[in-house]
Amino acid sequence: MVDGIRAYGLIVAMWIRSTMAYRASFLMTTAGNFLGSGLDFVAILLMFSHIESLGGFTLAEVALLYGATSTSLGLADLFLGSMDRIGQRVRDGTFDVLMVRPAPVFAQVAADRFALRRLGRISQGAVVLVLGLAGADVVWTPLNVLLIPVMLVSGAVIFGSVFVVGAAFQFWATEAAEVQNSFTYGGNTLLQYPPTVFAKDLVRGVTFVVPLAFVNWLPALRLLGREDPLHLPGWVGLCGPLVAAAMAALAGLAWRTGIRSYRSTGS
Amino acid sequence: MWLGSGLLLPAPALSGHGTGAGQSALREATPRQSDGKGEHEMRLYAAVAVNGFRRYATYRVATAAGVFTNTVFGFIIAYTFIALWSERPHLGGYDQAQALTFVWVSQALLAACALLGGGFQEELQERIRSGDIAVDLYRPVDLQSWWLASELGRAAFQLLGRGVVPLAVGALAFDLALPADPLTWLAFLLAVFLGIVVGFGVRYLVALCSFWLLDGAGVTLIAGLATTFFSGVLLPLNAFPGGFGEFVRTLPWAAMLQVPVDVLLGRAAGTGLLTALAFQAGWAVALLAAGRALQALATSKAVVQGG
Predict the structure, then answer these.
(1) B57 CB within 8 Å of a chain A CB
(2) Is residue B7 in some structural domain?
(3) B-contacting residues of A 58-87, CB under 8 Å?
(4) Which residues span the domain enclosing B32?
(5) Which of A155, A263, B51, B107 has the fewest CB atoms within 10 Å distance of its CB?
(6) pLDDT for A22
(7) A141 vs chain B: nearest CA distance in angstroms?
(8) Residue B19: how many CB atoms within 10 A of its CB?
(9) Please, which pLDDT band fits residue A85 given cuts at 50, 70 and 90?
């Protein structure tokens, strides 16, 4: 574990140094990352130029949802976002190189091509989140204040677990990198909008099957003092950390199984 | 967001041997006896296009993964559009069924029209950066036509491979406003073809910038953002407010998605259809001509990277 974190830190530092060699390029791509993830929000703003509320939620409330999920996804993307390159490595045989190095494979894969430009998405999400928190009718209790950082971190862990499961899946289906986009970026798009917009079955699916609802929907509904469409008890909104821990354990299991079943292409 | 920076790429990494395939196309297409230059060229570009098609058809799992992702996004966006259109019926002149049709057709065209990246651009940029382009320029073929043919082959595969299933699922799950008249579908296919050529024209210009910039990442990024926003992938262009909306609908990006969908929805019928197709064809010709001019400038002025 300590070894892994140390290796991760060293590889990340190396990639940051190499990024900083082209400082102008770094600034441009970070700005692009900021703008690129911001385009979604521009689309939401354009929608709200025609309407007052969407699914019963005001612009500020949607901004809260949007900011929370974008920041969480941004964090997961920053720390683990390059894991989807694993299929590529399995195909071209460079995964073997990682296996023979004296450092944990997971740390190497997670830190591979660490992209500091992804701070762009995180900062964009954070800005929208602050605007949303300021504009919406948040119930400010001490517990709810604490809930905000807890929501962001457990959201990041949930998204990160999906990244890891997706990466493990690529040991069997090396070309299927795109499937996990459905759950990460697709999930992010889903969570940007109020749960009231979607069909009940879809909401049930992302609550009980792939528990993305714990990233922002359930905690945010608690912050806003709103009932959720499935009428779950209020304390469910506080369960994010537990769900995140369970997801992380599951992801760890998937990763182990994946790496055990790995057979080199031999070429 | 759901597009990120090139997240839905049709696994470009899978396709590292593009020009290899292209070269074999050249060999296959070499005529056994001389039967006229024009015919020879047509056969050559047809072979290049067929190879573009085959190259993408090879990756079946990647295609299935793409279909899955497009379908998931289709469902998510469809529900947000239902909410928007029930709040504001007839927004942008669409009723709800038409808005939903827009969602599913745009998911079906996403890969074919390379609206979120993909296609030939990165490959051409890499050849310019590495200097391999010098070899391409020596070949007795026209560079632009070569890449256009290959791109059309890719688009044809992705239209079939990644377009049909999401649209069918969307039509089963939601009430869509799909036309019954086969002529409308033909006009739609023509509009899609023109849209793909316009998209090619824009990306060819972007790729050629590498002659001067070497690292094309910056322009690629900006061009990608522009395509995402101005093509209507995020929100149909007719739902853009006021004068800004009118302006956006005259840009080349409108020809890539908005016009084909409007043709399919029958919103551009009769002379309107001709105007719509002429709008696309006009941009296509202008962009291809600009591409040629820029290419002439690049090959006469710029120094090819050695190594």
Answers:
(1) no
(2) no
(3) 70
(4) 17-301
(5) A263
(6) 81
(7) 31
(8) 18
(9) confident
What is the reported pLDDT for B119? 80
A146 to chain B nearest CA, in Å?
26
Collapsing DSSP to helix, strand or coil, A104 comes out as: coil
Residue A266 lies in a domain: no
Domain annotation covers residue B6 = no
Beta bridge partners of B117: B115
SS (H, E, C) chain B: CCCCCCCCCCCHHHHCCHHHHHHHHHHHHCCCCCCCHHHHHHHHHHHHHHHHHHHHHCCHHHHHHHHHHHHHHHHHHHHHHHHHHHHCCCHHHCCHHHHHHHHHHHHHHCCCCCECECCCHHHHHHHHHHCCHHHHHHCCCCHHHHHHHHHHHHHHHHHHHHHHHHHHHHHHHCCCCCCCCHHHHHHHHHHHHHHHHHHHHHHHHHHHCHHHHCCCHHHHHHHHHHHHHHCCCCCCHHHCCHHHHHHHCCCHHHHCCHHHHHHHCCCCCCHHHHHHHHHHHHHHHHHHHHHHHHHHHHHHHCCCCCC
In the 8-state DSSP scheme, what is residue A214?
Answer: G
Q: Is A126 on the interface with B (CB under 8 A)?
A: no
A261: which DSSP letter? T
Q: What is the extent of the structural domain holding A238?
A: 2-19+27-260
Give the relative orientation of helices B182-208 and B217-230 as an angle to the nearest 10 degrees.
150
Instruction: Share the mean pLDDT of chain B.
Output: 86
Rounded to a whole number, what is the distance in Å from the CA of A2 to chain B's nearest CA? 32
Q: Which of B84, B239, B241 sits opposite A54 (nearest CB)?
A: B84
Amino acid at B45: Y
Residue A265 within a domain:
no
Chain A residues near residue B69 by CB distance under 8 angstroms: 178-179, 181-182, 186
Contact A28 B234 (CB under 8 A): no
pTM of structure: 0.88
Length of chain A in residues, anyone? 267
Does B236 contact A at CB distance below 8 Å? no
Asked if residue B185 has pLDDT above 60, the reply is: yes
Distances (CA, A) of A200 to A135, A191, B171, B201: 28, 14, 20, 44
A36 contact B CB<8A: yes
DSSP structure class, residue A101: S
- Confirm or reject contact between A175 and chain B (CB < 8 A): yes
**Would residue B80 count as lying in a domain?**
yes
What is residue B303's predicted lDDT score, i.e. its pLDDT? Answer: 64
